[in-house]
């Protein structure tokens, strides 16, 4: 396939960026989207031009690094798929593809298509963990957990932290991400010890990072590549209200 790419180029977060047009030829429909970008960068290097910066790591749909806005959709046109698992067969010969970074104040652009998602790391540091020293690794069956609860916790734990929920939300809200991390631990007995301080601290850090408020549009869940449910936001709201009702921190 021969394609026209309209790629966002930006030197750093302090400079103004813009769309630059590129042509790529002889793209195999079996290539992944990132492999197609590799071809573009090889062409640019041969011409002595600077390659396009973009984030990637595992290229297996696990790490969440491949955060691209493709033709106006987070991770591209295929539902339930990360950018690295999106294949060029989803496009046609002669197509024009617009490629942009995530758009959110809390995700500043590092360069070109690469954004700084360290705000998510700071939210996790604020409370997305179990801090109790539990000693050695316990036997898997030592703490009985009903299968329904275990399944719900596992589904929340599948969040890969890619940021598609933020990028697709008109308010740039991180509620789906935060709720998945809160639900994952709040549902399990191991996470009950500090569930109140956890949700208070994580929500406070989310607000501090500059993410917007949730208005229940649902675009976050619609564009999530791993299918995190909106039910987790309801769990987060329940946990937060319960924590505030009995908290010593009235701020």
Structure in words:
GO terms for molecular function: 2 iron, 2 sulfur cluster binding; electron transfer activity. Residues 150-180 form the 4Fe-4S ferredoxin-type domain. This is Succinate dehydrogenase/fumarate reductase iron-sulfur subunit. InterPro entries: 2Fe-2S_ferredoxin-like_sf, 2Fe2S_fd_BS, 4Fe4S_Fe-S-bd, Beta-grasp_dom_sf, Helical_ferredxn, SDH/FRD_Iron-Sulfur, Succ_DH/fum_Rdtase_N. Its cofactor is [2Fe-2S] cluster; [3Fe-4S] cluster. It is a single chain. The protein is an alpha+beta fold and 251 residues long. It has two domains: 3-100, Ubiquitin-like (UB roll); 117-245, Alpha-helical ferredoxin (Fumarate Reductase Iron-sulfur Protein, Chain B, domain 2). The chain is 35% helix and 11% strand. The chain contains eight helices and seven strands; from the N terminus they run ββαβββββααααααα. Strands 2-1-5-3-4 form a five-stranded mixed beta sheet. Helix 3 packs antiparallel against helix 5, helix 5 packs antiparallel against helix 6 (195-209) and helix 6 crosses helix 8 (231-245). It is elongated and about 60 Å long. The termini are far apart. The relative contact order is 0.14.
């Amino acid at each position: 396939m021969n394609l026209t790419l309209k790629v966002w180029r930006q030197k750093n977060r302090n400079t103004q960026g813009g769309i630059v047009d590129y042509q790529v030829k002889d793209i195999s429909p079996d290539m992944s989207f990132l492999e197609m970008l590799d071809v573009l960068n090889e062409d640019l290097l041969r011409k002595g031009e600077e390659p396009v910066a973009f984030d990637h790591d595992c290229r297996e749909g696990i790490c969440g690094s491949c955060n691209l806005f493709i033709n106006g959709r987070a991770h591209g046109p295929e539902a339930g798929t990360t950018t690295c698992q999106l294949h060029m067969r989803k496009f046609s010969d002669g197509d024009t593809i617009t490629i942009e970074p995530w758009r959110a104040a809390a995700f500043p652009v590092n360069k070109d298509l690469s954004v700084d998602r360290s705000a998510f790391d700071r939210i996790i540091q604020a409370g997305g963990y179990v801090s109790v020293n539990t000693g050695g690794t316990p036997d898997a069956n030592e703490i009985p957990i009903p299968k329904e609860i275990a399944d719900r916790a596992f589904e929340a734990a599948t969040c890969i932290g890619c940021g598609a929920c933020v990028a697709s939300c008109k308010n740039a809200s991180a509620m789906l991400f935060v709720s998945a991390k809160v639900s994952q631990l709040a549902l399990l007995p191991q996470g009950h010890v500090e569930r109140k301080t956890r949700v208070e601290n994580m929500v406070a850090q989310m607000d501090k990072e500059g993410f917007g408020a949730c208005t229940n549009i649902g675009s976050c869940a619609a564009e999530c590549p791993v299918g995190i449910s909106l039910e987790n936001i309801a769990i987060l709201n329940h946990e937060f209200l319960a924590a505030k009702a009995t908290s010593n921190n009235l701020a």
